[in-house]
Predict the structure.
Amino acid sequence: MNYWQRYILGLLLCLPLWGIAQTPAPGGTAKIVDVDYSDSLWVDKEMGATFLKGNVRLRQGNVVLLCHLAKKNDLINVVEAYGNVKILQGDSLTITGDTAMYFGNTRLAKMTGRVVTLNDRTSTLKTRKLDYDMNTRIASYNTGGTLVDKTSTLVSKEGYYNTNTKIFNFYKNVKVNSPETDLVADSLRYSTLSKDVFFIAPSKIVSKSKKKSVPGDTLLTNSGSYNLNSRISNFLGRSTVRTQNYNLTGDSLFYDPVTQIGIARGNVEIIAKKDSAFLTGQIGRYFGKTGVSRVYGEALMRRFFVKDTLYVSGDTLTSLEIRGTKDTTRRMIADGHVLIFKSDLQGKCDSLVYSVADSLMSFYKKPILWSQRNQSEADTIFVRLVNNQLKTMYLKRRAFIIARDTLEQFNQVKGRYITASFNGDSKLDNTLVEGNGESIYFARNDKNKPIGMNYVQASRMRIHFRENEVKRIAFLGTPDGVLRPPKDVSSDNRELDGFVWKEKEKPTREKVMRLPERKPAVAPKVIPTASTKK
């Protein structure tokens, strides 16, 4: 053995034998790694080793190993390879690195280097240490790696790649970057064929916006899939999409950022950011390009003011963006069994339109409204809020207002049209009655004692109230009326035709929100004792 051979042998003997003891294949059927070619070769029979140098080519079945220097141990069927190591499996997989250990019995390769590269034609994986099982065709690493394909770059601390199914499992500090998307997750699965990302842990997806002034959509989920090509999401479990104007959340969520269509199911929440409005229900649909959001099933809207909240419930709630040349306003529509609750206004109807810009609420289909101790009915009712307080109410056709005073008397006004004005405390201030006007009000003297009931008919009248008591009335034309003393007031003449006091139907906050009604407190029973009897 010359000097050069002794030097190479000493170098190889000093290098550590990586890996673990192999378990021979059952029945000793494991194939020995064969030598195809090398520039020089020598055998140490005592060690049971073959040393190869220069253009080394080894083979086991469909696996080919190329390197500059190799030590092949025939006793344990292990190869140590050094210098520009390349492992080929078939014609579709290539692994390159600086050094490698190949265990022939288990067909496991362990590759290290400054950059270890795995290429299977669909993608390229780069890391510093890589294990590859030729039987299962699974590659794994735990020192950080980067996967690059035609559409994206994926980075993680750990990873497992099945080169048969083209499915990659990433773990710890996963980041995905594509031309359209940035994604951050703790763990995920990725198909290099379909470009589908499958989430198995909390994940965040941020769409890149073409306009710097407009933020991209953000998606949050724990489970489901996302396609990096189409950018379509199908999420399972609690998930959220955040757009510039809306947040959409549900127990399951579909979202397409290209068409800006989102569909959520189960405990749905939609937040209209600019209008401080919060919609909930069981099914939610969002159409970003048209600015339409719709909620079905136990639908509820909450709009928050500085010192109050407006609650609206119905079978269906719809939010519409009214896009003008300069500004965008919003209109809320409720349909089917509509209930509303606000501290100074409660109501029910079958259809409601709420224009947010001018604070105008329109009630259709048998509306009834309550404000303080007042009840209002008509075919259609329009309500305007000023500084989020009730200011004006316009009742159209078959209008009827009942005001309950402090003596529990019912002052009444009806006509074809009624315009009711309220003061700063949302209390009834005056009413303008137009067309077939009728009024019943209970008069009092200066000592607040009842002096009788006034019944008045006029085509047009204006009635002024204070604390729901009539203080002044003005007529246009000649009125027809009568003052009945208290002794002549009876159940037959104290109510206008159509009078029905419906206070029991007045919605509470709990009823609008579909919460259990609060039960009034009941005083505890006192059991008589000798002391209490005394």
Observations:
- The first strand starts at residue 34 and ends at 37.
